[in-house]
Fold:
Amino acid sequence: MKNFNFKTASNTKEATKLASGRATFLAGGMTLLPAIKLRLAAYSDLINIKKIKGLSGIKVSSKSLRIGATTTHAEVASSKEVGKSIPSLAVLAEGIGDPQVRNRGTIGGSIANNDPAADYPSACLALNATIHTNKRKIPADKFFKGMFETDLKKGELIESVEFEAPEKSAYAKFPNPASRYAIVGVYVAKLKKEVRVAITGVESCVFRCKKLEDALSSNFSTSTIDSVNISSKGFNADIHASAEYRAHIIKVMAKKAVSSC
Structure:
C-alpha cells in the first residue's frame, strides 16, 4: 500500500475543498481500502466524510424515502421507517455481504462505486431514485454510466438518496456464495405511473429491462414473464455463470420478485 494523507472533513464544503488532485472520499471503506491494499487504486489523500453531520439518517414522507449517504447497510436493514415505507429496500440491505460489511459499508459509497454486481444501484433504478449531491440532483436513470463509472464530477459528494415510494416492490438475488454479490439481481417496482425493473450482476453496469417492464405493465403477474424472451448478448460470463445461464436466471428472479410483491 502506498502512503497517503488522511484528512477529516467537518462539513461538505470542507470535504470538497480538500478533494483536490488525486484525492477521494472515504466513508465505510469496504471497497476503497481493499482496492488500495491490492494496488488497484492509489490516492494522495483520503478525505474522511463519516463525521459530517447531516450525511446520515432516514427521512420518510408520503411520497418518498430519503436516506443519508453515510447511513450504513445495517441501519437501512433494521430501520422501522424503511421497513414500513419500502420493505424491499430493507430486505436488499440485509442481504449485502456479511455483518462486518453491513455495519461499515454505506449506501452512498455503494452507489458512488457502482460495482457491476452491487445491490443498491438496482434499487435506485427500480425505485426512480434521485441522487442528491452537494451541487445538484441527479435522476438515477442518468447517474449510472458504466463499469465503476457514474455521473459524479471531481469533488462532487453524494449527500443523500431519495427513493420514490412504490405501490409494491421486491428484490430477488441469486448471490455469489462467497461474496454475496449478485450473480443476478432483479428489483421489481410497481410505481404510481409505471412499472420499473432493474437488473444487476449481468452486464458491466446496472440496467433497466424494458421487455420485462412492458410485460408487467400489461399484466403484473408471474405468468406474463414466461412469454418474455431475454437475449444473453452482451451479458457477463465467468466461472460462476455463463451469459445464457444469467439470461435464464433473470426470469427466475423476476418471477420470485413479482410473487413477493
In short: Residues 224 and 258 are 10 Å apart (CA to CA).
